[in-house]
Structure formats: C-alpha cells, structure tokens
Amino acid sequence: MKCLVMRIPPLPQFITVGHSVWPPGMQHNKRNFQVYDVIIVVSGKHYMTEEDEVYELGVGGILVLEPGKTHWGHRPVDSDTEIYWLHFVHPAPIEIVQPDQIPWSTLLRQGTDKDLEPTEQFMYLPKFAHLNLDSIIPTLDEMVELHRSFSMKNALQLHALTSHLLYQLQAVLHTGLDTRAYSLSEKVIAYLNQHLLTPFSAENMQYTLHFHFDYLSRCLKQFTGLSPLQYRHHLQIEKAKVLLVQSDKTVGEIGEQVGIPSMNYFVRLFRKHQGISPGQYRMSRQKLM
Fold first, then answer.
1. Closest to 72 measured CA to CA, from 27, 39, 130
2. What digits encode the pLDDT tens for the residues 43-91?
C-alpha cells in the first residue's frame, strides 16, 4: 500500500463534501486541478485512472487523487454505485512511502513558550486501499449534513471534521502495521518506561524481550531515530522537566527520581538536551507562572 507523506502544519483546508448514488452508465469526468479529491465507495464499483495508474474501487475502496495530476473515469459504473467524495487543499505530498517505513514512534521536539514556529510534523494518507468503513461513514454523514447548511456557524466544525476524517484514514495505516520490527520497537519503548528507575542493562533487555540487543536497537531506531539509551534519556529528561516545575525537590533529588543518581551527570545530560541547566530551566518556568 502506498502512503502519501504530507507536511503539517498547515492542516488540510476543507472545500466540499458530497454523497450520491451513481446509476449504471455514469462516468467520472476528466479533470486536473490543484485540489485533493478523495473518493470512497460504499457499494458497487468505481473505475478511475490518474495519469498512468488504473484503479478499480470496490466496496470500502478509497482513492486519494492528487493535485496537479489528471484523473478520469476510464469506464462507466456498471451497477448502482454509492460514493462519498471530499475535496480539500494542501501542498502536494513530499514523498510516497510504504506503511512499514513510517516512523510512527519518532519523538518530536516539544514546543516551549519561547518558540515562534511549530515543530516539523507529518501526516500520512493511504493512496489507495480497501477499508472497513464502519467508523468512517458516521463522520462523512455528519460532514454532508453540515455542508447542506454551510454557514459561518459551522464552518470551523467542518474543518475540524475534515481533520478527524483524515486522522481516521491515517489510523488505518497505524493499526494495520503488524511487522515484527514495529512490534518490537513498541515493546522496547514499553520496557524502557517500566525500567526507567533501574540501571540501564542491555543484557536484561534482551533477556526480557527474548531478542538480541543489537536487533532490538535497530528496530527502535528504525521507528524513532533513537537508540534505546537515547530514548531512555529522553524519557528521563521529560520527566525531570515536569518535576522541576511542579515540585520543590532539589536538582539532585529529581535526578534520583528519574533514575540518574549522579547529580553531575544529570546536570550534564539535562544541559545537553535542553541547552540550559536544570536550575535555569526551573527559574525560566517560574517566571512565567
């Protein structure tokens, strides 16, 4: 399954949504515009071509037609065909990948009150797939109903539902990912969370998870970009940031509470990750409260 990689923000912007039943003989017209056109088939079959790619959408079929690419129905539907469609605008995909190439567990830099721009993020949509529509149809029906009385009052709600629908489509990629590498990366993350306060041990990790440490490391790095020790440090620093703001404990006590008993090492690690010392971080946050 091909997946479109799209940079966010901005979020996709809603244009229109519709629902209809096409009678036999009806055929999609030829178009090329700077808009995403999402087609979802509930019953029957729908036949589409985009550039040189031919698609046949059966029940549960979804196709995301891309902006700037010519598409058309290469043959008429041959039975009553129920479809939904959604148009939205967004920059063209930056690339196309397979589901098992998506780094779902990659840690994003958390924004602070000093940031002026959001962290770089991405969304992923299936290009062409056949899905279970049970959870998607209610969202589409609500969008169609709101669009019938489109107004300033419900415009924001329609944009929010557009994002929710695209999230549901992305979730199909995530929940459908059952490769061993991804499964092991999730197990490594769970292990690191559970053993945050005990000394790091590669031997204990491989004994607990029943795989060689080097292989576990490769699996985690594939989906997060971090080694197990780097991921552990991230978890420790994030927990320490919360304690620095929400408690009166000393820096040394907080280091011990996140699994780093050496205060000097804790301070060095914190500065490496945050650019300032734990004390400076605490003072900067307190000034904002």
1. 27
2. 999 999 999 899 999 999 999 999 999 999 999 999 999 999 999 999 9
List, by residue range, all CATH 2.60.120.280 domains of the chain.
3-175
Residue span(s) of the chain under CATH 1.10.10.60 come to 180-286
Q: Supply the Cα-derived Rg of the chain in whole angstroms.
A: 24
Q: How many helices (H) and strands (E) does the chain have?
A: 9, 11
236 touches 259 (CB < 8 A): yes
Does residue 113 have a pLDDT over 90? no
State how far the Cα of 265 lies from the Cα of 46, in Å rounded to an integer: 62
- What CATH number labels 3-175? 2.60.120.280
d(CA 118, CA 264): 32
DSSP strands (E only) in the chain: 3-8, 13-22, 36-43, 46-50, 53-57, 61-65, 71-72, 81-89, 95-97, 121-126, 128-130
Q: Which fold does the domain 180-286 belong to in CATH?
A: Arc Repressor Mutant, subunit A (1.10.10)
Give the three-class secondary structure for 228.
helix
Q: What angle do CA 190, 110, 97 make, to 5 degrees?
A: 70
Is residue 102 scored above 60 in pLDDT? Answer: yes
Select from 185, 143, 145 the least CA-distant residue to 165: 143
CA distances from 65 to 20, 41, 197 (A): 18, 14, 49
Is the pLDDT confidence value at 178 over 70?
A: no
pLDDT tops 80 at residue 289: no
For residues 195 and 202, what is the distance between their CA atoms, to the nearest angstrom?
A: 12
Tokens 């690191």 found at: 192
In angstroms, the CA 25 to CA 1 distance is 29
